[in-house]
Design a protein that fits this description.
The protein is of the alpha+beta class. The protein contains 4 helices and 10 strands. The protein has an 8-stranded antiparallel beta barrel. The termini are far apart.
Amino acid sequence: MAGVRRCMLAVAVLMCLCLWGSTEAAGGARSRPRPQRRPPKKPKVEPIDLTPAAQNIDIQQMTGTWYLLNTASKCSYLINHGTKVEPTVMTLTRSTASDQTLSVSTKTRHNHQCWEILQVYHLTPTPGKLTLKGANPELNTEIAIGEMDNNYAIMYYQKRGKITMKLYGRSVDDLPEPMLTKFEQLAETQGLGLAYLFPFPTYSHCGAVDQDHVINCVPTC
């Protein structure tokens, strides 16, 4: 009988040891699964990189006068003052065919006065893409001419990861409805729905501007 008791005691001790060990594994010193290696992050793709410029762009054809008809943007100024935008006209000039820059004059009205903003767009090796240089490369504005013909141009402006689209016309005449719809659809693909569309007036554009109202700057929108 003593041998049987010793045998049963040994079995009980072994069971306790097994239960204690499993409690430790499920409690204090839990065994953790081996951490999984995170997949490498995909390189950040800027929105304008997803917007191929038209390959058949003739920069010389871009020169001349363009009237701003519509803008798609999340620019805070437009969101707060989009109902008060003023007629805006842009003129592009190029001194010679070998010149790698476009001189840009933008005329608009502010506080009932006409202002002219002077800028320089630099041509890039990629057809249809331009750069408006800032104080440093991080402040550059990358520009892509998405579509263009003799009557209209759709341009994409990207600065610090934010994108703005602009629809220009060669005249103040209304563009065909399909073209306006196309611009809205392209804006939607950039996350710029109807709430971020700001039509511009097509009348009362500025003409001559006093020298005191000519400035060199890079607008935020």
